[in-house]
Structures are given as structure tokens and as C-alpha cells.
Design brief:
Helix content: 25-40%
Largest sheet: 6 strands, mixed
Strand content: 15-25%
CATH topology of the largest domain: Nucleotidyltransferase, domain 5
Shape: globular
Order of helices and strands: EEEHEHEEHEEEHHEEH
CATH architecture of the largest domain: 2-Layer Sandwich
CATH superfamily of the largest domain: ATPase, nucleotide binding domain
CATH class of the largest domain: Alpha Beta
Number of domains: 2
Radius of gyration: 19 Å
């Protein structure tokens, strides 16, 4: 069994993979800095919940965009499982080329999403991740990342809204019943939702105009689920895309 770990700015997501099948998935808050022993306890509990022991873990692959978490998490893997985790980064074979000004600056999560999307759904493909930040990356038909786009995530935008205004409350980010809001909370929810949805549709339109050829649109990220059924510009919503990408990268670098 392969343990795949996505260390993001908001959550650390741990997945247990048997081949291409995800048999367990768990989340830890990234913002709380934990010691290596605390991570060890959590991983042990997650394994137990899924019906595994540490002896069942053959290897670990980590995709991280939070360097300050890596030291403790890596130490927990070495201490608990007894080996170094494989880390997505320079020197790792991905099967994807990066045709950008400085390929080394591309986030490991974006790269892994692109691997998962291209080899699962084919190319050309526009890969969107709705996480702490919102990212779009275009992969051409030959498996080369040609362009990227980064903007504010909907949750970050929402926090700015209620954090910078004295009388606006914190609200849950959900699909509103109507844009015709009749109270402050529903007005905020409608405003956040439709502004972000419009941004998605306009962004995809601009990519289509400038690329000039058909492509699929594959989305992922925890907040992507609330938009997947409300627009025809999204072809596939895959919440497990990054795990699929990590599994594919692992196979190319298996030790």
C-alpha cells in the first residue's frame, strides 16, 4: 500500500492507495504546527481506522507547498515507518514537460494535478485547482505545461470580505438558492458564489480564445464541488486528482 500525502496551505490530506484505488483519505489542519510525534500518532490512527498497520505501508510520496511543515512531517515518516519519503520536486520524473520561464517555481501541487489530469483524461487539458489559491494550468496535447494562472481562492476572498468589514458576518461558502437575496448572510453567499463562478467561466473563455483549439477542463480542490454542476465549462470534477498524479509519479520513480 502506498501512502500519498498532499501538504497544502490549509490542509494536509493523507491518502492510502492500493494500486489506483484510494482506500482511505484523511485531513489534518496545516495551520496548526505539529511535532513529528504528533504526526506519528495521527498517521497511526488513520492507518488503524482504515484497517492497516505500519507494516502495510510499502512507501510514501509527499507533495508539499509548505516548506515549514516538511521537517516535522518527514521526521515522523522516518521515525514511524523507517524510510525516507519520496518528495515531488526537482529530480523527480513526472512524464510532463514544463515550458515556463522558470520551471522550478511551479508548485508541486500544480505539477502533480497536471500529471493526474493529463494521464487520466488526456490532453490538451486545462487543469483548475480550487484551493487556498485558485490555479489554472494548461497542458497541451504532447504533455507540456504551456501556461499558468493564479488568483485568490474563494475562501481567502470571503475571509477578506468579513475580515475587513465591521458589520459583515462570517458565512459558509455554499451554492445559494437564489441571487435574489433577502438578508445579509444570503447576500454575501450569493455575491461570493456568483462572482467566483463568473470568474471561472470568463477565465476558461479567455484560455479558449488565446489557445485557439479545443481542450478539456478538469477541476479539483475541496471547493470545486460546489461549482461542478452549475456551469457547462467544466468537463470533469475529480476530488482525488492529486492522489492520481502522485500514484503516477511514484510509478515512474519507484524505488
Amino acid at each position: 500500500m502506498l501512502m500519498a500525502v498532499d501538504i497544502g496551505n490549509t490542509n494536509i490530506v493523507i491518502g492510502f492507495l492500493e494500486g489506483e484505488r484510494i482506500v482511505g483519505s484523511y485531513r489534518i489542519t496545516t495551520k496548526a504546527l505539529h511535532t513529528s510525534d504528533e504526526y506519528t500518532v495521527m498517521i497511526s490512527q488513520f492507518l488503524q481506522i482504515s484497517g492497516y498497520t505500519r507494516r502495510d505501508v510499502e512507501d510514501v510520496i509527499v507533495c508539499s507547498v509548505v516548506p515549514k511543515v516538511m521537517h516535522s512531517f518527514r521526521a515522523s515518516i522516518i521515525k514511524f515507518l523507517g524510510f525516507e519519503p519520496m518528495v515531488v520536486g526537482p529530480g523527480i520524473k513526472t512524464g510532463i514537460n514544463i515550458h515556463m520561464d522558470d520551471p522550478k517555481t511551479m508548485g508541486a501541487d500544480c505539477l502533480t494535478d497536471c500529471v493526474g489530469a493529463y494521464y487520466t483524461y488526456g490532453g490538451p487539458v486545462l487543469v483548475a485547482d480550487f484551493g487556498t489559491a485558485t490555479t489554472f494550468n494548461y497542458v497541451d496535447g504532447k504533455g507540456t505545461i504551456r501556461a499558468g494562472y493564479i488568483t485568490t481562492g474563494i475562501r481567502a476572498g470571503a475571509e477578506a470580505l468579513w475580515g475587513q468589514t465591521a458589520q459583515l458576518p462570517e458565512v459558509e461558502i455554499v451554492r445559494p438558492k437564489s441571487i435574489l437575496a433577502t438578508n445579509t448572510r444570503s447576500a454575501m453567499q450569493a455575491g461570493l458564489y456568483y462572482t467566483f463562478l463568473g470568474g471561472i467561466e470568463r477565465t476558461v473563455q479567455q484560455f479558449r480564445e488565446e489557445i485557439g483549439e479545443p481542450f478539456k477542463v478538469v477541476t479539483t480542490g475541496g471547493l470545486g464541488r460546489i461549482f461542478k454542476d452549475d456551469t457547462d465549462v467544466i468537463d470533469v470534477y475529480d476530488p482525488d486528482l492529486i492522489f492520481k498524479g502522485m500514484a503516477l509519479i511514484y510509478k515512474r520513480n519507484v524505488r
